């Protein structure tokens, strides 16, 4: 049996496939390498992963759950490893709402805030802004938290939620409503 390459993980990948990554999701898609929970990576030894990508996933864990999830992801990362996160940007969404810049009002951001609710996993239980998520990452043992730009990644050509803009798909003039932070171990 061939040994799996866990050096680059794509957690909660859903239908999105990134070549060169080991894909983990609770649902069975053809490209998923491991079907199971993304918050319990018991099959991966400590400090063996170089990079984790989790796009619009952390918000699916509740107020009393997300800290343990971050610690589990931190556990599998090597010294110098990176966690690349994308979550709905509560601050950006709230600003657009308060400023009256949502064409349909609240329904425009309901999916970002509450999840698509298409299956049992597609519910959001937590919101984040840059200040809070940075603090949570630091508390979990990460350092050097900084924003990352979806246009400069190896997955820039894959349209995922890290590129979410309002108005929808207006990446030139719209507002980025995904908070994209990377943290180093």
Concise summary:
This protein is of the alpha/beta class and 185 residues long. Helices cover 21% and strands 24% of the residues.
What layout of secondary structure does this protein have?
Layout: E1 8-11, E2 22-25, E3 34-35, E4 49-55, H1 66-76, E5 77-88, H2 90-98, H3 107-114, H4 130-139, E6 143-147, E7 165-166, E8 175-176, E9 178-184
Parallel strand pairs: 1-2, 1-4, 2-3, 4-5
Antiparallel strand pairs: 5-9, 6-9, 7-8
How many strands?
9
> Quick check: average pLDDT?
96
Strand adjacency order, main sheet: 3-2-1-4-5-9-6
Class inferred from helices and paired strands: alpha/beta
Shape: globular
Helix content: 10-25%
Would you tell me which CATH topology of the domain at 8-88 and 125-159 and 179-184 applies? Rossmann fold
CATH class of the domain at 8-88 and 125-159 and 179-184: Alpha Beta
Order of helices and strands: EEEEHEHHHEEEE
- Return residue spans where pLDDT drops below 50 for at least 5 consecutive residues: none
